[in-house]
Amino acid sequence: MKKAALLIIYGLLTVFTVCAQSGVSKSPTSVAAPKEESLRLMETSYSFGKIPQGRPVIHVFTIQNIGTTPLLLENVQASCGCTTPEWSREPIAPGAEASIKVGYNAYADGHFNKTVTILYNNGQTKALIISGEVYKLPASAAPENASVQFLKQTNQ
To answer: Quick one: how far is CA 118 from the chain centroid?
Structure first.
């Protein structure tokens, strides 16, 4: 009986403690000031259309600093290893433009849709998207000509 009473008291204390902890906090809450929008993408996506397998392609995206302070691109990261971004590590002055060159290695055939994420000014992000369709090239540039083999045999 004592054990049952102790278990009930322990259970009530646990419930009371949980309820007390989940109550509304009386400490003041701080609201983060919204970050100034400083990066404008002149285009957010680009389609390469149909491209041959094994032929890398490149597109250059233009960005602009529309803020009042220099813009720093901290990182530009592709969603996979087949996409390679290149960008300047130098700060972009207010009102100035810069470019991000995005290359795609068309190794695998079929449709692709890749994302390139831009990380700038202490954690802000924007995304670029490239897409297209990779088609297989024929095994040889021209079909084999049976007459060539015939000519080689008759000249011997």
So the answer is: 7
